[in-house]
Amino acid sequence: MRYPGLPRALPRFLAELAVENSRDWFEAHRDAYERDWKAAGLDLIAALGPLCQAGEPRLEAVPRIGGSLKRIQRDTRFSADKAPYAPMLHLVLALPGAEKHRGMHLVVHPDRLGFGAGHYGLGPQALARFRDRVQDPEDRAALLAAAARAEAVGSRWDAPDLKRLPKGMEAEADWEHLLRRKSVILRGETAGLPDWLFTADCLAGLDRLIAAHRPLLGWLAR
Q: What NCBIfam families is this protein classified in (predicted)?
């Protein structure tokens, strides 16, 4: 079955939700949510499934809310921002067995497309192994080459978590930022929403972004 693209009504729904962002407004527009957000998101994930399984490393496209489709409801318990909804369509294509900590993210905002990949929040053992791998010249070169593939489509490294190198570690200036990280993430966004998202070219366009970040995910999976 040929995938026709996301519904063109989706950006309007997201833009209006961003402005109103109340439970009363959401309930009054539940039909649009069910059709232009929920059904559209699940259909896109299902369509991406074969592409996610065809490449290396394989990614999991789970067509359910809480699977590859992040909930539109926000957890506001520990946030100063009490807006109840996230005005975005957020897909997470995770590495098998990695839950959502390692994977590819695709985020449709009202006015732009966000994308990125990596591993958020390395635990103590994973962080120690990452630092060991970074200090190996061949492994480090492979990581930087993988990052360059993602950078070619507009992704950039997140800012390092630490201001200084960990105690006892040394590095050259061109890669010392790697040792100051507790997460390994590159991300970017488009200037405006690409029209191809809403056409039969949608899968090809998203597959290009996924393919550019696959080397990074492959490095993390090893």
A: TIGR02453 family protein
